[in-house]
Design brief:
about 160 residues, mainly alpha, about 55% helix, about 0% strand, globular, Alpha-glucosidase, DUF4259
Length: about 160
């Protein structure tokens, strides 16, 4: 039986997927992740058979790690996996939008990610994980224009 925790990289299966991506040439990483998100969204009925919520959360966290505000995720990933070798060519807001949509599928209120936590501490940490990822990915998608390219915002 594998590890499954409420943090973004708390799953052996999710880390195995990221390690598999790391074994591919760097120029393929973004395409592999985009394909994974597309597969999840096109095959929602295969949840729990072909893919699991913790995998989607981990891959969304990986994308968030490449975005402003995701630096703490880079450090955490480096602590738990060789997946830090996975590099995105640049923080891609289009990939952030795909990640956010897949994350909403598995971790919407009452969604599969939120079911089965055995302690209140784990439940709260799992919710905090999702809130953090949504904030990072959402901010990235807000900075994108219709062309899919980043838009300068004044703050």
């Amino acid at each position: 039986m594998g590890t499954f925790g409420p943090g973004p990289f708390g799953s052996d299966g999710a880390l195995d997927f990221l390690d598999d991506v790391a074994e591919r040439p760097p120029q393929q990483h973004a395409a592999v992740l985009r394909h994974m998100f597309g597969y999840v969204l096109a095959n929602r009925d295969l949840l729990w058979r072909e893919f699991f919520p913790d995998q989607v959360v981990a891959v969304a966290a990986f994308v968030a790690a490449a975005l402003p505000g995701g630096e703490h995720l880079q450090h955490r990933l480096a602590q738990v996996s060789d997946s830090s070798a996975v590099k995105l060519p640049e923080p891609m807001a289009g990939l952030a939008a795909c990640a956010l949509e897949a994350l909403h599928f598995v971790a919407s209120p009452g969604g599969p990610w939120h079911q089965g936590w055995t302690t209140e501490t784990d439940r709260l940490e799992a919710q905090q994980t999702i809130d953090n990822l949504i904030a990072i990915l959402g901010a990235a998608t807000e900075r994108v224009g219709e062309s899919g390219r980043p838009v300068r915002t004044s703050r």
